[in-house]
Design a protein that fits this description.
six-stranded parallel β-sheet, alpha/beta
């Protein structure tokens, strides 16, 4: 780091409803313990902010998560990058403003490793819009929105979003990279994911996200999404595969036949479970009150 780099190694605390801002083009690294009061805000309004400690506390079976900090990227060009999983009250990435407003999950390159964000009071459509902004095919700027600079190290994977339940039994929104087709973000593509996709097949609109079966970020569940799921059926984010049962193959074949009259052929391996409409597959490119100025 050069002279334009600030390290915060001590305790970082905030008062209820207070606003902490990072301004200017310098780099800020937060590596000390964080303690945030309810409804507090951290706003990145310039430069880079690197989070090496968690702004909250994950849930445990006997205790709920501590999720008090609201994080905002923008409206000026700015970037937040993770070096550890995060627990937030909310996350807002203002992609409608000029210049890139970036939130980088920055997953490690080790197979099966990933970084995640748990959000306890967020808008699912807004978060999905920020993910889609950076990850959809033909995105004007793949750094404008929520993305993962480590995704290239994890084949056949993409960023997903789902409403899930934590260890304490509380509902929250989870963002993480996973295998394409893993709608419920458990790390593997199973018949449960297919059932969720099929129940939303043909649905469109801003409420249609990864969890509903939109695997290519176009706010619709179409045959293209089914092709992507079937190509990864049984595969996990870590690279392992599960055996394909006759009943699962029959369900996939029946769905394919009724939607396109083209059944799925018996695969020699799970990784070759490709729907005959392969030409329709879309190519995927890797994605690649304090103030400081």
């Amino acid at each position: 780091p050069g002279s334009n780099f600030l390290f915060l190694n001590g305790n970082l605390t905030s008062l209820p409803s207070s606003i902490l801002q990072k301004i200017g083009s310098g780099d800020l690294l937060i590596s000390g313990p964080q303690s945030h009061a309810p409804d507090s805000i951290f706003q990145a309004r310039g430069g880079n902010t690197i989070l090496r400690t968690n702004a909250g506390t994950p849930a445990a079976p006997a205790s709920p998560a501590s999720a008090n900090l609201n994080v905002i990227v923008g409206p000026e060009p700015a970037k937040i990058m993770l070096n550890i999983n995060q627990v937030f009250q909310n996350l807002t990435v203002s992609t409608s403003n000029p210049g890139p407003q970036s939130f980088d999950l920055n997953s490690p390159t080790i197979p099966g490793s990933f970084r995640s964000v748990s959000i306890y009071n967020g808008s699912k459509p807004d978060l999905w819009a920020a993910i889609s902004s950076a990850n959809r095919a033909g995105a004007p700027d793949p750094l404008d929105g929520i993305f993962d600079s480590g995704l290239a190290s994890h084949p056949a994977s993409a960023i997903g979003l789902a409403k899930v339940t934590d260890a304490h039994g509380d509902s929250h929104l989870l963002i993480r990279p996973t295998r394409i087709g893993d709608l419920n973000l458990d790390g593997v593509v199973t018949i449960s994911d297919f059932i969720d996709l099929s129940s939303n097949f043909g649905a469109t609109g801003p409420n249609i996200t990864w969890q509903e079966g939109d695997l290519n970020y176009d706010n619709a569940v179409t045959i293209s999404d089914f092709i992507d799921l079937s190509a990864n059926f049984g595969a996990s984010y870590s690279g392992t595969t599960l055996p394909l049962s006759d009943s699962d193959l029959a369900l996939l074949n029946d769905f394919a036949s009724t939607r396109s009259h083209s059944p799925i052929p018996e695969p020699s391996t799970l990784l070759l479970l490709l729907f005959p409409l392969t030409p329709l597959l879309r190519p995927r490119r890797p994605r690649s009150s304090y103030s400081y100025s």
